[in-house]
Amino acid sequence: MVSVSRLGGLAGILLLAVACHPDHSAELPAGQLAALHGTWLLVPEASRADTLSYRRNTYRFKYRPGGRPGFRLGPAQRFVRYDVAPGGGLVAQEGTWTETTAGHLLIHLPELEPSEPDYELEMLDYKQGVLRLRRLSERPAVEIIRNP
After folding, report:
1. Nearest partner of 68 among 50, 51, 44, 87, judged by Cα
2. Which of 18, 47, 48, 70 is the most buried (most CB within 10 A)?
């Protein structure tokens, strides 16, 4: 460990404060889904393997021909998925979301049934305006959380 005196003054204190800062949970606190309401667009350059990274549509993205896929998480469990259309632009599929367990959303898109069954998104992390999700390959048997 580097001593505060070697770094000098404020820089050393800041380094110690950061080094001693406890880890935060990657999960959103229960009931905080309202903070994620809005439109989120994919950031493919920040996505890795099965982890998808999204930013709000208000972020200043670099131009991407054809548009960026994404989704809108709305109140009253409204969900809209945006896919890139064959000729460019976006196609919207409307559906619903339901919180299954803390940090897991079950997505139902009736327009795509039966070709695409319901799927589940696991919220991995929300830091510095970037929402990281994992789309689970199979819909697990889960019990739906009901708000009283």
Report:
1. 44
2. 70
For residues 130-142, average pLDDT: 73
What DSSP string runs through 34-100? GGG-EEEEE-GGG-BTTEEEEEETTS-PPP-TT---EEEE-GGGEEEEEEE-TTSSEEEEEEEEEEE
Decide if 54 contacts 40 (C-beta within 8 A).
yes
Torsion angles phi and psi, residue 130, rounded to 5:
-110, 125
d(Cα 93, Cα 101) in Å, to the nearest integer? 24
Mean pLDDT, rounded, for 41-50 = 89
Helix (H, G, I), strand (E, B) or coil at 140: coil
Q: How far apart (Å, rounded) are the C-alpha atoms in residues 13 and 77?
A: 45
C-alpha distance from residue 3 to each of 10, 14, 15, 22, 57 (Å): 12, 12, 10, 20, 44
To 10 degrees, the CA torsion angle through 97, 49, 68, 84? -80
Which tens digits make up the pLDDT trace of 68-94? Answer: 999 999 999 999 999 988 888 889 999
